[in-house]
Amino acid sequence: MLIDKISYVFTIFIIAIIYLIIWTSLKIMNKDMKSNGKKSSVNKSAGFEIIEPGNSSNLKKGGVIPIKGEITIGRKEGNTFILDDPYISSFHARVYFKNDDYIIEDLDSTNGILVNEVRIEDRTRLKIGDIIKIGNTILKFI
């Protein structure tokens, strides 16, 4: 009699665990379906510290330019980050976030972009501490 009661309680306990596992699995699958399989991304904040402002009177040494999403750098209006420098093209560079990396891209500028004193051909991934030279302006990626 006692063994039958223990067996009955144990069976109910096992069934409850199985239902809990199924319920948790369905809850996770429902969440994945609602997000269309997209991973939630962590907002990374990055920016450029101004090491040498060059000819740009609107920049101050030690200042920080935040990068949110995508910025463009150039001499003309319409850029996110305007530099007053004769060695900078109208639309010189673009910095954007892709696949957990910040990328700097040369927009076919005349004088190019130096990253850690090496001229980039097209685009390159930025790493914390990289030194970027655009015209007479020197920036540090932070």
Automatic annotation (TrEMBL):
Annotated InterPro entries: Cell_Proc_Reg/RNA_Proc (IPR050923), FHA_dom (IPR000253)
Domain (FHA): residue spans on this chain: 71-120
Swiss-Prot/TrEMBL keywords: Membrane, Transmembrane, Transmembrane helix
Ranges annotated as spanning the membrane: 6-26
Keyword Ligase: no
CDD domains: FHA
Keyword set includes Chaperone: no
Signal peptide (from-to): none
One Pfam short name: FHA
UniProt name for this protein: FHA domain-containing protein
The organism's taxonomic lineage, starting at the top: Bacteria, Bacillati, Bacillota, Clostridia, Eubacteriales
